[in-house]
């Protein structure tokens, strides 16, 4: 028995089913409560746009819910671990399993199995659904909840410097030479930094070099005179699509292959990619955090329920789990501004708490 990682098939299915049901229940509870609170805070802005109603509120829920599921799934696994193990402990089932010759790791093996399936599913869910819903939601928010954009690869509120001048675009879509801008404004500035001329256009396309402003309108600040240009104008010759990619690459809204291409383009331009590389690795290490939760919450499984310390063990398990999330976010923030190498920022918390959890389990139960 000690040489088998899993207990009997019946025992494995029993514990795995109990654990999976609790994960789903906790996740649904968290997502429903958080979605309701989030919708209350955003509903005013959504309904402020003329024509929006219940359909748009449901659209928002459909786009926001995947983000909440992906973010709080590891928390749900942690809480479900503690609930499952406390239940087994209170019913003396853990004592019965250990009396039958099972080790602590064998007792936890069904939980690791379910957590592994959840981690793989969470990774696929992030790549196929969450990135797309995030991109669509950000594009919709950039349009102030107007008509839902058809192009979800939208970069909003882009400010770029063209020498002393400033280029602004409300939205930017596409990539490379096919990049398009909408609601574009170019501010001409004198050597002292004062704006002397403002040129606006409903759209602009890349002219290589510069950007071709369609149907531009010029406004002279000194004379306060507005004129409609008779032809398109090419401006901002110092701004390239790569600069826009550098300023507005969004790891949350890009899948791993897409993010890899963004990193390669930014690196080729000679700019730092530490933040994006940290996010790239965290797209893998983040979902795998579900595998840590049974280990960190395992302290709640052992010890006699009648000793009166079961509640304290549950608190310790929760503290270990939430400490991981705090350290993980801190390390990712350090990696974003170059304090840690990207690989260390993404994986160091995972490895650290894996060792901590194993140490606690081995020294106390094995």
UniProtKB/TrEMBL annotation:
<dbReference type="InterPro" id="IPR005495">
    <property type="entry name" value="LptG/LptF_permease"/>
</dbReference>
<feature type="transmembrane region" description="Helical">
    <location>
        <begin position="68"/>
        <end position="86"/>
    </location>
</feature>
<feature type="transmembrane region" description="Helical">
    <location>
        <begin position="310"/>
        <end position="327"/>
    </location>
</feature>
<dbReference type="InterPro" id="IPR030923">
    <property type="entry name" value="LptG"/>
</dbReference>
<feature type="transmembrane region" description="Helical">
    <location>
        <begin position="12"/>
        <end position="34"/>
    </location>
</feature>
<keyword id="KW-0472">Membrane</keyword>
<keyword id="KW-1003">Cell membrane</keyword>
<feature type="transmembrane region" description="Helical">
    <location>
        <begin position="107"/>
        <end position="125"/>
    </location>
</feature>
<keyword id="KW-1133">Transmembrane helix</keyword>
<feature type="transmembrane region" description="Helical">
    <location>
        <begin position="339"/>
        <end position="362"/>
    </location>
</feature>
<keyword id="KW-0812">Transmembrane</keyword>
<protein>
    <submittedName>
        <fullName>LPS export ABC transporter permease LptG</fullName>
    </submittedName>
</protein>
<feature type="transmembrane region" description="Helical">
    <location>
        <begin position="284"/>
        <end position="303"/>
    </location>
</feature>
<dbReference type="Pfam" id="PF03739">
    <property type="entry name" value="LptF_LptG"/>
</dbReference>
């Amino acid at each position: 028995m000690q040489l088998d990682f899993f207990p009997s098939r019946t025992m494995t299915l029993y514990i795995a089913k109990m654990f999976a049901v609790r994960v789903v229940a906790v996740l649904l509870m968290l997502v429903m409560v958080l979605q309701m609170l989030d919708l209350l805070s955003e509903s005013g802005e959504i309904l402020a746009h003329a024509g929006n109603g219940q359909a748009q509120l449901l659209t928002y829920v459909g786009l926001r819910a995947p983000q909440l599921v992906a973010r709080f799934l590891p928390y749900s696994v942690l809480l479900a671990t503690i609930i499952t193990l406390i239940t087994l402990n209170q019913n003396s089932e853990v004592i019965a399993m250990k009396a039958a010759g099972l080790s602590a790791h064998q007792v936890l093996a069904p939980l690791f199995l379910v957590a592994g399936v959840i981690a793989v599913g969470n990774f696929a869910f992030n790549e196929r659904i969450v990135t797309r819903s995030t991109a669509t939601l950000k594009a919709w928010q950039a349009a102030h909840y107007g008509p839902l954009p058809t192009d979800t690869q939208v970069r909003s509120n882009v400010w770029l410097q063209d020498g002393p001048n400033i280029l602004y675009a409300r939205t930017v879509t596409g990539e490379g030479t096919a990049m398009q801008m909408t609601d574009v404004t170019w501010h001409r500035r004198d050597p002292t930094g004062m704006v002397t001329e403002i040129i606006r256009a409903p759209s602009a396309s890349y002219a290589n070099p510069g950007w071709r402003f369609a149907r531009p309108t010029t406004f002279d600040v000194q004379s306060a005179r507005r004129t409609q240009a008779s032809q398109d104008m090419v401006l901002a010759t110092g701004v390239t699509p790569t600069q826009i990619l550098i300023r507005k690459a969004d790891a949350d809204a890009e899948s791993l292959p897409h993010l890899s291409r963004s990193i390669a383009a930014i690196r080729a331009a000679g700019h730092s990619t530490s933040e994006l590389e940290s996010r790239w690795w965290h797209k893998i290490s983040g979902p795998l955090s579900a595998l840590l939760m049974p280990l960190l919450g395992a302290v709640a499984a052992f010890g006699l329920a009648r000793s009166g310390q079961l509640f304290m063990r549950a608190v310790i398990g929760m503290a270990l789990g939430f400490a991981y999330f705090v350290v993980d976010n801190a390390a990712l923030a350090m990696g974003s501004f170059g304090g840690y190498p990207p690989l260390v920022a993404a994986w160091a918390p995972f490895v650290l708490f894996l060792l901590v959890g194993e140490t606690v389990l081995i020294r106390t139960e094995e």
